[in-house]
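Cross-posting from the modeling subforum.

Setting up a comparison between two proteins and wanted a second pair of eyes on the formatting. Protein 1 (sequence, then structure tokens):
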Amino acid sequence: MPDSELKGFATADGRKLSYRKLGTGPVLVCHPGGPGLSPAYLGDLAGLWTRFTLIILNPRGTGASDRPADPHAYHFDDYTSDLEELRQHLGLEQIMLLGYSHGGVVAQVYAAARPERVRRLVLAVTTARLGPEQQAATQAAIEKRSGQPWFEDANAAGQEEDPETDDQIRDQVFRRMPFNFARFGPAEAAYLDTWRSEPINGDALRVFSEEVPSLDLRSRLANITAPTLVITGLEDYVCGPVCAAELTAAIPGAREVIVADAGHMVVVEQPLSFHDEVAAFLTS
């Protein structure tokens, strides 16, 4: 992986918003998920830097991006406002945009509200809502993993009371992390260790938890005009094929790709498939 360059700029309200720039070629703006996590977990985005100039945003309150003064300022409209300021900072009339997980929800909101600003859109392991169908699929995926040695602790972590401090939240998040993989073994545990020490922003997670029950973007998706790729892992326990199918049906002309033997961390579980599918779509 080439050396990356950490860059930043001042937002209209005086915060520093930072991003990592690496690679060469057409610009691909990447909004990671979490929320509240830095994009360190995405690594080099499956080597897409070999084909594109990656602009990997540190969302507000993560990495080298300042936290807003208001601890509640982590709503989707807040994130899309930052994304628009990033586009303006880059001096681009249109952007190719990849949103991953929570970042995929941000990307949907942005592309639906500003369709003229998005040239191509990649929605990776994300969803338009977490309704009954999605919740049922998640529960089935959790039960499918019940025989794993890590299951008891990971499942318990998801049922405990909400922790208070950022460190407690990070501990809970990492205990539950094995669910994000189709297979969780020593290699996956070693990968988690590479970013286990990254700070986590509990405020962002708390706001997201409040928004989830009412999240439903289906009525907005017809406004998206950019060619769109919807990609997820076959074994993704939270944003899997059920979520992908709903997105694909609602976004005009969207293309769907389901990656076998991959969960929510498809970008690191099946990097070659992820790279090839995304690169082929963006250059087609």
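Protein 2 (same layout):
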Amino acid sequence: MIDFNLIKELVKTDFKLKYYGSFLGFFWSLLKPFLMLGILYFVFTYFIKVQIPKFALFLLLGIIIWNYFIDTTNDSMNSIKAKSKMLTKTRLSPGTLVIAASIHNAITLLLNLLVFFIIFFVGGHPLGYVSLYFIVLFILLICIVTSLSLVVILLNIRFTDFKHIWDVLTQILFWATPIVYNLDYVTTNFQRWFLLNPIARIIVDARAVILYNTFPELKQIIITFIISIAICVICYYIYKKNKERVLEFL
């Protein structure tokens, strides 16, 4: 059974520890996507010269969603290692630490999205009714990333070098996800492979409903739900089967 009071305290602790001793503190989490935006926007506007409508907002939204995925998986791995004594001396479930890390980063995600929408409205951009679908995408994103993190922590505990492997994999995934480019830049034959990545599907659909007031095709919505549910079920099954072995490798 999930102890929500414990999760609440863990989220508070994670916030304090993550920004302890930092001059800007929590504002680093808001500054991070804008630093990435500045670098990528400069390179892809003045050197590669991509032609994408509302490119700054296009890029920022992709970065914000991607950062939630990266920060949650990394924080989950770090949390398990940092709180290993707590896990071995209590009946605390490793999944509880993952949920706390996910909520902690979901709060940061919401604050980053708040800044995004302020910029969006100040720029005079309209927001249509189809943008309500973003709420569904937001929930799917939380579920997918939390589920993936459950498997990531198992691999990180079992294999010493997994953290380094994960860093390389996420770098590859970053460029294999349409964050700095439009999916239309990818040939039709390869698009279906790109869209097996649920994070890519969420980013593409989020941009469609928010930036371009376009609702995804029903077929694509169904596929997104199937992939998302499949990942959540498979990841939870793997975690449930192996969570008791976590203590063996700590």
